[in-house]
Design brief:
Number of domains: 1
Structural class: mainly alpha
Shape: rod-shaped
Number of helices: 3
Strand content: under 5%
């Protein structure tokens, strides 16, 4: 059953991706790349926190959390920007 659901999910994603314009994909990719960079910074910060203790460790973990939140917000902004491009192209 899981395999069928996975295949159907992938098929629908491919179908949706085919509907996207090049400009929409370009916008989405730019935001996604920025979000990935933030996630990488967060991972590096978490690795650094593992080598610290006490207040310094907490500060590093908080900074990593902030970066992860910023990455999520960047992805949401990218989705919104791509939607705006799609709407403007339909006019």
């Amino acid at each position: 059953m899981k395999t069928i659901v996975t295949v159907l999910g992938l098929a629908s994603m491919v179908a949706l991706a085919a509907c996207d314009s090049k400009q929409e994909n370009k916008v989405e990719n730019a935001y996604e790349n920025q979000a990935d960079a933030l996630d990488n910074q967060a991972a590096n910060m978490e690795s650094m926190a593992d080598n610290l203790s006490g207040t310094a460790e907490n500060a590093a973990e908080n900074a990593a959390d902030a970066l992860e939140n910023k990455a999520a917000a960047t992805r949401e902004a990218g989705d919104a920007a791509a939607d705006a491009v799609e709407k403007s192209e339909k006019k």
